[in-house]
Design goal:
The protein is built from nine helices and six strands; from the N terminus they run E-H-E-H-H-E-H-H-H-H-H-E-E-H-E. By secondary structure, it is mainly alpha-helical. The strands form three sheets. The chain has a two-stranded parallel sheet. Strands 2-3 form a two-stranded antiparallel sheet. A hairpin with a 2-residue loop joins strand 4 and strand 5. It binds flavin-adenine dinucleotide. The site of flavin-adenine dinucleotide has 24 residues, from helix 5, helix 7 and helix 8.
């Protein structure tokens, strides 16, 4: 297609428009491929809504919407929930009471140079990086959810979400293989932040130069030296990461204070 002009953005920022558009897509489009939720899928969706309701550093109206969705899911005695009921809640009841989730997709840091590139998968990575950082900086946020005391709560929820719902099944398979191999070694919320960074770089490495790559946004080992000079070191002529610096950088980059409201509807 014809190239559109790219919106103004800075790669040193995270954009709330991407996070909200991602949630919109997840709740209204991705879940719609499942007519009913039951068993493992329902449990996965409940855990996902729990994690975002408690940790999403977003607008009050969005957090309220997530909390209401969570209360409703927890209070339902049903073992099977029709997707239409979830959609009705998200679209209608919440709209009326002013709990608002933007209903247009607006990609900013996740914009692609053409349709079909970047967008939702980019926002999902971004969302989970933000959530692992929130879990590390607000240790009490998951109190009384059944997920407290588990430093891997966010990652396990992500893993289950990706396997059960993420439209790209190949991605789910790869992610599951990485989780089986190395998730058991994660013992703290800080290690969880670093684990997701490391695995994301592994995926970037695998996808560099393939059709998934947007030529305007080449896959790199992230953060590049211009974003975080101190993250990079050399030992005996070989590049090594300074993981203490990487952790500090991730907490700053994906921290609530670095999320920009620019280009929000
Ligand atoms: P993305 O990789 O989506 O990254 C988004 C943003 O995160 C970047 O712009 C950058 O700002 C930041 N970032 C980059 N690297 C890191 C890092 N290491 N740590 C923290 N932040 C970082 N596609 C496939 O074709 N095959 C797959 O197997 C596959 N597996 C996937 C598994 C998961 C769990 C997810 C969420 C997506 C997967 N995808 C896969 C999609 C793919 O990883 C990209 O999301 C997609 O190609 C869009 O790439 P992007 O250029 O927008 O950058």
């Amino acid at each position: 297609g014809t190239a559109e002009a790219l919106k103004d953005f800075e790669k040193s920022k995270v954009y709330m428009a991407d996070l909200e558009s991602g949630l919109h897509y997840l709740l209204r489009v991705e879940l719609a491929t499942h007519q009913t939720l039951e068993g493992e899928e329902l449990k996965t969706f409940k855990d996902f809504v729990t994690v975002v309701a408690k940790l999403f550093p977003g607008r009050q109206s969005v957090v309220k919407l997530l909390e209401t969705l969570l209360e409703w899911l927890v209070s339902l005695p049903l073992e099977k929930i029709p997707f239409d009921a979830i959609l009705d809640l998200v679209n209608n009841k919440m709209r009326i009471s002013g709990m608002f989730l933007s209903d247009q997709l607006q990609w900013v840091g996740c914009q692609g140079s053409r349709v079909g590139l970047r967008g939702y998968p980019c926002s999902l990575w971004t969302l989970f990086h933000v959530l692992t950082v929130q879990a590390a900086s607000r240790p009490d946020a998951l109190a009384n959810t059944g997920l407290e005391e588990n430093p891997k709560a966010v990652l396990q929820t992500m893993r289950k979400y990706i396997v059960n719902f993420f439209g790209c099944q190949e991605c789910g398979k790869h992610f599951e293989e990485m989780a089986v191999a190395s998730l058991p070694q994660v013992k703290s919320v800080d290690q969880a932040v670093l684990w997701l960074w490391r695995k994301h770089n592994q995926v970037n490495g695998r996808l560099a130069g393939t059709m998934s790559e947007d030529p305007h946004f080449p896959k790199t080992q992230w953060p590049s030296p211009d974003l975080c000079p101190t993250c990079h070191e050399e030992q005996d002529g070989i590049h090594v990461w300074n993981e203490d610096k990487v952790l500090m950088f991730l907490k700053q980059h994906y921290g609530a204070a670095n999320i920009s409201p620019k280009h929000m509807y």
